[in-house]
Q: What sequence folds into this?
């Protein structure tokens, strides 16, 4: 089976790894001049880890992460450092924090990336029972057709048995399935960074919540720290300096908030306005086209599940493709994928949006009520809610 994957992000590369193992000939189209990791850190919960294991990437992922994060005290704190609520250990599960650059490298290694040139940076065949992967950079796909044709910006067209849209929230491929589908701005933006050197967290991590502002702390395996800062702002907000702005916004918050910002080079701090899909998609595939990751269910990052859901998508597609047998059963496979993935991912996206509304409130009364509810919430309920999100396994039939 010849497969086109549009987008070389985490979801697209994960799908390439899995489909290669299933015997497909995969071509990945990437708009940029080189494949590179976007963002900074990533939280991968138990469901994402199971997806990576399904793709054969469990040992490689374990080598760049540390289970020591499970021993940290985590939960929500006030800006003065007092704990509002501590998360039960069972809620964290098998949480790992990874530098996106490390995860990207693992994925590229798994498709045997050839680093000699940007135009066609991979073209490798595996053993007899495996497929092959090629990655074409500087190849912008502007549209896809239901018959499996992809159209590039330079006018080239090519036809495949299957086209996977892994091209993000502003997906061009999605236009073939749900043209003009609306996006929704959350009302806030997020800065992300990774410290240049290890920072002692004194065994404490998690999220600090204020009024319209939040700060998250997550330790990496090598002692450096991935952090994020969230603040309400217009979608088109412009600041004279990202680092100085985030420092000003979080001045006076408990240690090590300022320590983490100061330990991060200004050029390594990036801000992203947070958008999601304005409404759930009615379907994730049409003809020979199927969507994956943010193209299918872009969500706010409040549950830390954006990457995890993309990994689940990729693993599910790989398993189903490996069991498809006759290519004539492609439509049945895509129907099965839609049934397994759409409802779950959209439920998580909906919950994540609501969590963001609660945590980003600027109201003194509502933020006080939020903190009181979190403080009073029985640990078993928090653990149960977290477990329901992380409860995923690859399809068995």
A:
């Amino acid at each position: 089976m010849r497969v086109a994957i549009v987008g070389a992000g985490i979801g697209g590369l994960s799908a390439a790894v899995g489909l290669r193992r299933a015997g497909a000939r995969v071509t990945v189209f990437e708009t940029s001049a080189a494949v590179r990791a976007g963002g900074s850190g990533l939280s991968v919960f138990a469901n994402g880890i199971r997806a990576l294991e399904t793709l054969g990437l469990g040992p490689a992922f374990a080598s760049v992460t540390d289970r020591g994060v499970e021993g940290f005290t985590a939960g929500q704190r006030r800006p003065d450092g007092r704990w509002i609520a501590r998360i039960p250990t069972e809620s964290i599960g098998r949480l790992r924090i990874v530098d996106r650059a490390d995860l990207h490298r693992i994925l590229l290694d798994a498709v045997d990336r050839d680093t000699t040139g940007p135009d066609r940076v991979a073209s490798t065949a595996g053993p007899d029972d495996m497929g092959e992967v090629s990655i074409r950079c500087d190849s912008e796909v502007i549209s896809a057709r239901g018959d499996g044709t992809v159209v590039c910006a330079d006018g080239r067209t090519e036809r495949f048995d299957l086209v996977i849209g892994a091209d993000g929230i502003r997906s061009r491929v999605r236009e073939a399935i749900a043209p003009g589908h609306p996006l929704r701005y959350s009302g806030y933006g997020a800065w992300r960074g990774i410290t240049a050197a290890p920072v002692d967290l004194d065994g404490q991590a998690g999220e600090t919540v204020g009024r319209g502002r939040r700060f998250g702390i997550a330790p990496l395996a090598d002692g450096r720290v991935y952090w994020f800062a969230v603040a309400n702002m217009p979608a088109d907000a412009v600041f004279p300096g990202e680092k100085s702005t985030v420092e000003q916004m979080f001045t006076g918050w408990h240690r090590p908030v300022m320590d983490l910002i100061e330990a991060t080079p200004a050029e390594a701090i990036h801000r992203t306005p947070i958008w999601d899909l304005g409404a759930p998609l009615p379907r994730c595939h049409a003809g020979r086209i199927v969507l994956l990751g943010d193209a299918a269910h872009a969500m706010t990052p409040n549950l830390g599940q954006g990457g995890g859901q993309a990994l689940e998508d990729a693993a599910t597609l790989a398993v189903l493709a490996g069991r498809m047998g006759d290519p004539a059963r492609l439509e049945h496979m895509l129907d099965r994928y839609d049934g397994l993935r759409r409802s779950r991912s959209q439920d998580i996206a909906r919950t994540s949006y609501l969590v963001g509304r609660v945590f980003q409130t600027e109201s003194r009364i509502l933020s006080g009520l939020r903190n009181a509810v979190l403080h009073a919430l029985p640990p078993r309920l928090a653990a149960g809610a977290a477990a329901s999100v992380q409860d995923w396994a690859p399809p068995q039939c």
Notes: The first strand starts at residue 2 and ends at 6. The two ends are 20 Å apart (CA to CA). Residues 321 and 365 are 52 Å apart (CA to CA). The chain is about 35% helix and 25% strand.
